[in-house]
Amino acid sequence: MTIADIGYGRQFEGWYDRVFPHAAATRAAVDALAAFHPDPAWGTLEFGVGTGRIALPLSHRVGPVTGVDSSPEMLAALEKKASEGRVTGELGDIRTYRGDRAYGLIYCVCSTLSLILDPEGQREVIARAAEHLRPGGRLLVEAHNRPGIIALHQGLARTTMFIPHPEPDTGIQMHATLMAENRVWQVSTLLFEADGTHRIGTEVTRLLTPDEVDVHARDAGLNPEGHYSNWLRTAYVPEAGLFVASYTKPA
């Protein structure tokens, strides 16, 4: 099996977790995923597990989590944190993944779906998720929200923002560019550390709306269930920077 890896893990190797220093955001996602789970005994699968930022704490709530990722670097980082939870990492392409079991909850978060840059590839991801859901199971997708990102740019093709970290003299600077009729978003992330060092990584995403994901989900036999602006289940609004969409597989 050929695994297509875009190199995301190589760019962010060794500092990916520093991009997400705010524990409250991780807790909110974990709390919501645990609450959305139809039955933890049915199993849990993450598409794009990365370093286990979500899967490791979630495993303390719902039991063992299987995580698929195309990045050997990300999975190596996950393995180093194996003692922090019950997560089994698998090297694989989420567009073509074929596992040997079905799950009650599958989730694809942190705009992993948007890192697939063509609509057909995104459709394939949702189709693979649907195939691995057991009847009565649920799929959750979190991604950057196209109209919200366009609003963030305030009519400009390029924008820059800075997000301070909790500790002094550290933070993230982001340089973002909208391209291809505002459907493609390139973001370069600079991490500044207190010791004067810095790291740089660039990612390109194909921005989505929940309605687009709904089409792929229906094509895969899933029922759209809800659209939200965050993990607190706030009702979806176009101005939100993120969206969370939930889908169920008929029992």
What does this structure look like?
The strands form two sheets. A seven-stranded mixed beta sheet has the order 3-2-1-4-5-11-10. Strands 6-7-8-9 form a four-stranded antiparallel beta sheet. The protein is globular, with a radius of gyration of 17 Å. The chain has 251 residues and is of the alpha/beta class. The mean pLDDT is 95. The two termini are 31 Å apart. The chain contains seven helices and eleven strands. Strand 7 (171-179) and strand 8 (184-192) form a beta hairpin.
Average of the residue pLDDT scores: 95
CATH class of the largest domain: Alpha Beta
| Fraction of residues in β-strands | 25-35%
How helical, in percent, are the residues? Answer: 25-40%
Rg result: 17 Å
What is the CATH architecture annotation of the largest domain?
Answer: 3-Layer(aba) Sandwich
H/E topology pattern? HHEHEHEEHEHEEEEHEE
Largest sheet: 7 strands, mixed
Structural class: alpha/beta
Query: What separation lies between the terminal Cα atoms?
Result: 31 Å
Number of strands: 11
- Tell me the number of helical segments per DSSP (H or I, 4 or more residues long): 7
Largest sheet: spatial strand order: 3-2-1-4-5-11-10
Uncertain runs? none
Gist?
The chain has helices at about 10, 25-35, 55-60, 70-80, 120-130, 145-150, 210-220; strands spanning about 45, 65-70, 85-90, 105-110, 135-145, 160-165, 170-180, 185-190, 200-205, 225-230, 240-250. By secondary structure, the protein is an alpha/beta fold.
What attributes characterize this protein structure?
Rossmann fold; 251 residues; single chain; 7-stranded mixed sheet; 2 domains; 7 helices
